């Protein structure tokens, strides 16, 4: 009986030490770098300004990219996670926030908001198809972004324009300090193209709508 009691005491002490060690490990996880790309968008000339507001919807994407994981593509059908790093938010949320900030910083819109934030004339609906680094086995990485966008007239709920945006940025090396600036350059290029496109396509859509309204008015007068 004494030997059994001694064995139980040893087992209890071992279990307690194991639990304490587990708690200590849980309190001291491996260090994680949180990445928050910083994009600066210049204010546009006053002649570019419009008198309506824009809604930016959250991009849709697949389950793998709908997370805060930094992805690396090793082959056309193989994605891995960059160890020790994470985005500040999920990739769609991060991109939506950057789009809203960049459109607002241009000063070209009466207002820019998320869905339901304000009454708007147009909205942007998008699908995030690529948001990753590509490792082809060489010494460097390449950042690849791809976004399919529809410009939607809110009142009619019809898409007035559609386009795919694509950006590639080759970066020197594979370190985290090299990767983040590569994403920033790719994002800046994509957002600049997107802003120009929205201003051009919305102006063209407004002109078509005005012309159609004048045609209908002329038909009524002729009846």
Report on the structure:
The protein is α/β, with parallel strands linked by helices. It has one domain (27-222): 3-Layer(aba) Sandwich (Rossmann fold), CATH 3.40.50. The protein contains three helices and eight strands. It has helices at residues 2-27, 91-105, 176-222, and strands spanning 33-35, 53-56, 69-75, 78-87, 111-113, 122-134, 141-153, 158-171. It is elongated, with a radius of gyration of 26 Å. The model is unreliable at 1-26 (pLDDT under 50).
Classified by CATH, the class is: Alpha Beta
Query: What's the name of the CATH homologous superfamily?
Result: ABC-type transport auxiliary lipoprotein component
> Radius of gyration, rounded?
26 Å
User: With helices defined by DSSP (H or I, 4 residues minimum), what is the helix count?
Assistant: 3
CATH architecture: 3-Layer(aba) Sandwich
List low-pLDDT spans: 1-26
Quick one: biggest sheet?
A: 8 strands, mixed
